[in-house]
């Protein structure tokens, strides 16, 4: 397996689980996050890069570095994300902006940076990590939901734009998953509202991401991985 995959947000949580799964399958990986030390620890024998996805120059430079060291990128996973949960009336504008910049603009920038290579090589596969909140909305997460809903529109539009170049773009939309992002949530209270009765594990989302990355005839799809939460939201 010589394929190269860049995983933004690959140092922790869902992105890290994707990295572990793909490493086992022999992919060559670029693990990208802001904190280089944490990214290096997650990368093991693979390469780690520091990058803030919200900064265009950073993203451009990182892609150049990745291609210099690993060659052309075949697969891209956008798992970098942040949340700043609060009711809209209490949400600071800077928190709205940072969520939109990291969760939506960040993925747009990495996709744009990947396009040149993928168009040149007439092929590629991208999975953007959205959220069930982007489809259903969630009280206390209006800016976060906006960023994730925007990601669906963006991904489907890009899927149409580049299908003829044999580039596929899909979204995985998780529900509650055990990561740093959800560590302060009270699972005991929330689990009763999830049909499968529990939060998900990162590896369960990682399998869905890898499935879409490797599925040659699926594009523009949103795969929900939420223990049935969307059925009752
Ligand atoms: P974690 O907080 O565990 O990990 C987030 C990752 O993103 C880290 O690697 C972090 O590294 C990186 N990251 C954050 N901001 C930036 C940035 N500006 N530039 C580059 N990298 C960044 O989150 P999860 O694994 O839980 O989340 C992964 C994705 O899944 C996110 O998009 C999240 O919105 C989404 N999601 C998560 C759910 C959950 O229940 N956990 C549910 C639904 C969706 P560093 O801080 O070093 O930059």
UniProtKB/TrEMBL annotation:
One GO CC annotation: mitochondrial matrix
Highest taxon of source: Eukaryota
Pathway: Lipid metabolism; fatty acid biosynthesis
Biological source species: Heterocephalus glaber
Protein name according to UniProt: 3-oxoacyl-[acyl-carrier-protein] reductase
Protein encoded by which gene: Cbr4
Keywords: Fatty acid biosynthesis, Fatty acid metabolism, Lipid biosynthesis, Lipid metabolism, Mitochondrion, NAD, NADP, Oxidoreductase
Molecular function GO labels: 3-oxoacyl-[acyl-carrier-protein] reductase (NADPH) activity; NADPH dehydrogenase (quinone) activity; quinone binding
Localization per Swiss-Prot or TrEMBL: Mitochondrion matrix
């Amino acid at each position: 397996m010589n394929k190269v995959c860049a995983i933004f947000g690959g140092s922790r949580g869902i992105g890290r689980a994707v990295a572990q799964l793909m490493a086992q399958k022999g992919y060559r990986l670029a693990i990208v996050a802001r904190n280089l030390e944490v990214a290096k620890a997650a990368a093991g024998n693979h390469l780690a890069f520091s990058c803030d996805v919200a900064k265009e120059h950073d993203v451009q430079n990182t892609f150049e570095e990745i291609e210099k060291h690993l060659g052309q990128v075949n697969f891209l996973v956008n798992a970098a994300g942040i949340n700043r949960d609060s009711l809209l009336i209490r949400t600071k504008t800077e928190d709205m902006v940072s969520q939109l910049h990291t969760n939506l603009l960040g993925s747009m920038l990495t996709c744009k940076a990947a396009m040149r290579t993928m168009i040149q090589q007439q092929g590629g596969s991208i999975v953007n990590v959205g959220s069930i909140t982007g489809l259903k909305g969630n009280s206390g997460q209006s800016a976060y939901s906006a960023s994730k809903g925007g990601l669906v529109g963006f991904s489907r539009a890009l899927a149409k734009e580049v299908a003829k170049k044999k580039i596929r773009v899909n979204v995985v939309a998780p529900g509650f998953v055990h990561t740093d992002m959800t560590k302060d949530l009270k699972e005991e209270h929330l689990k009763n509202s999830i049909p499968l009765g529990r939060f998900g594990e990162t590896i369960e989302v990682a399998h869905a991401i890898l499935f879409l990355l490797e599925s040659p005839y699926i594009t523009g799809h949103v795969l929900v991985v939420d223990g049935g939460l969307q059925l009752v939201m």
